[in-house]
């Protein structure tokens, strides 16, 4: 990798492009995202993602360029093609979303998962996990942190992938990346309309299981060891009729609660409970 | 309740006191906390907490004082003793922690739970739930949002209470309140040193169950229907030796994971998984 070029103007189009990537629309249109800090950048490289640009500030990072390369050799090994820039502290702070900038910001290409090729690729990824489909559908999720936490739990449970159905958040929002502890770099996360996802799942013969407080069927009494997709709704609005109809009365389940103050769970906690009930049943088989 | 007094100076000691309550230390020393917005203030009143002061801004709230009282009659019914103040928008914004201030801020007394009297009070609160003890110990939790989410799940699972052991966060941090969806107003949350909590749990004959990745025992193979305390550690540091020793080899359990990218769960997700495995076992009994 070449020595980093000095870059000091806030008007530089590269700097502006990084700041714009905070917006969902810009990430969607460009297919890019921003990773921040040693750990996140390191994990994106380890996941094999393609780095486009690297911005670093020796003062904030507390490391010289040479020290950075020694500590994160993947920068040279896997991202020798990327453009590197040395930026002053004030400018790096402008580029970072994180409250405590670490002095390292990199632009990567998002992994591309297409519904058309997902089945093959995800099965290959998960062949050491479960023999039958295990998917999560985050339906209408509104908080990026919740989506990220769901992807983390999905990975931990060995799920094949996560669908963000009709969601106005994406997995490469900085808060989603952080909450996922970089699982979004590895786990397939597919943003698509509910109808397309449902068609995909029907082709897979995956049973649709919707967690909803209105149901009466206990989630632990339903077979989650067979091929399933676990649908978790947004906390306020619940799950769309489309999904509830696809699940039918034998696929709509409830997590029995005894709350004095609350009658619902955080969406990522509901997903974790459902996912690990599925793993419990699969281990018993 | 008297008509609210007009208050417009940022130097007013009442205003400064509200801002100071963002600090853990000020909340601990005063025993007070701040609730923000219609829903949170309404839930604190519904939970029977004692309101000290109410600050409102008709412009931001989009309601007159009369309309506020009609919509939240508990203000008159349960907080007639409180001092009410009418403040201009700029000042209310200074007092609020929330990014989108709703125009309503209230100072309440924290519910007081003491280890000495906890057993009686919690049993009474939960007599309709489980016949045997079900506690959560958040050991060294560092994120208020995680603590709040754990309290929410604990309530939903019918747990008797949550201990924040050696924690440097408290349940009345604004982010903890929000993540708990006000469950912290109702569920006993006790901040105390680990040693004191352990003594309390031993007196209750509650079995200590520690979730830790180093354990080999599957959490679903352990009896969680008897009296138990589920100990969840901080994500980075894990659980202190004190707790692991108290649990012993038959009380240290693992949640089996199959992650490609991650090998741990968000603390609140781990708590939810353990809590709802306990409720599953209890329903089966």
- Shape call of chain A: elongated
Most extensive contact = A-B, 45 and 45 residues
The Rg value of chain A, from CA coordinates, equals: 21 Å
Order of helices and strands of chain A: EHHEHEHHHEHEHEHEHEHEEEHEH
Question: Could you estimate the helical fraction of the residues of chain A in percent?
Answer: 25-40%
What does this structure look like?
The structure is a homodimer of 285-residue chains. The first copy, chain A, has helices at residues 13-20, 24-30, 37-46, 58-61, 65-71, 74-78, 89-95, 115-125, 144-156, 174-179, 194-203, 241-247, 267-284; strands spanning 5-6, 32-36, 51-56, 83-86, 104-109, 134-139, 161-165, 189-192, 207-211, 217-218, 228-233, 252-254. In chain A, 40% of the residues lie in helices and 19% in strands. In chain A, helix 9 runs parallel beside helix 13. In chain A, the strands form 2 sheets. Chain A has a 7-stranded parallel sheet with strand order 8-7-6-11-9-12-10, with helices on both faces. A 5-stranded mixed sheet of chain A has the order 1-4-3-5-2. The longest helix of chain A is centred in the C-terminal third of the chain and has 18 residues, at 267-284.
Notable characteristics:
homodimer, 285 residues, alpha/beta, seven-stranded parallel beta sheet, 13 helices
What is this structure's SSE topology?
Two copies of one chain form a homodimer.
Chain A: E1 5-6, H1 13-20, H2 24-30, E2 32-36, H3 37-46, E3 51-56, H4 58-61, H5 65-71, H6 74-78, E4 83-86, H7 89-95, E5 104-109, H8 115-125, E6 134-139, H9 144-156, E7 161-165, H10 174-179, E8 189-192, H11 194-203, E9 207-211, E10 217-218, E11 228-233, H12 241-247, E12 252-254, H13 267-284
Parallel strand pairs in A: 1-4, 3-4, 6-7, 6-11, 7-8, 9-11, 9-12, 10-12
Antiparallel strand pairs in A: 2-5, 3-5
């Amino acid at each position: 990798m070449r020595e980093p070029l000095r870059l000091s103007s806030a008007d530089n189009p590269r700097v502006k492009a990084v700041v714009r990537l905070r917006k969902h629309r810009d990430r969607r249109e460009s297919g890019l995202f921003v990773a921040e800090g040693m750990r996140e950048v390191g994990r994106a490289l380890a996941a094999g993602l393609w780095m486009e640009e690297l911005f670093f500030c020796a003062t904030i990072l507390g490391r010289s360029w040479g020290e950075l390369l020694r500590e994160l050799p993947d920068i040279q090994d896997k991202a020798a093609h990327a453009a590197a820039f040395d930026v002053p502290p004030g400018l790096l702070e402008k580029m970072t979303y994180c409250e405590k900038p670490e002095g390292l910001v990199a632009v990567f290409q998002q992994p591309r998962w297409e519904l058309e090729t997902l089945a093959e690729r995800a099965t290959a990824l998960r062949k050491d996990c479960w023999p039958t489909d295990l998917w999560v559908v985050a339906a209408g999720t509104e908080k990026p942190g919740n989506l990220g936490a769901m992807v983390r739990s999905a990975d931990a449970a060995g799920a094949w992938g996560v669908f963000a159905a009709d969601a106005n958040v994406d997995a490469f929002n900085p808060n989603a990346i952080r909450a996922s502890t970089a699982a979004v770099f590895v786990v397939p996360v597919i943003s698509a309309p509910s109808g397309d996802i449902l068609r995909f799942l029907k082709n897979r013969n995956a049973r649709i299981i919707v967690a909803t407080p209105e149901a009466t069927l206990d989630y632990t009494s339903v077979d989650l060891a067979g091929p399933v997709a676990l649908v978790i709704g947004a906390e306020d609005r619940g799950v769309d009729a489309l999904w509830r109809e696809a699940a039918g009365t034998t696929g709509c389940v409830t997590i029995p609660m005894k709350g004095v103050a609350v009658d619902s769970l955080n969406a990522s906690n509901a997903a974790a409970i459902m996912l690990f009930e599925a793993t419990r049943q699969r281990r018993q088989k």
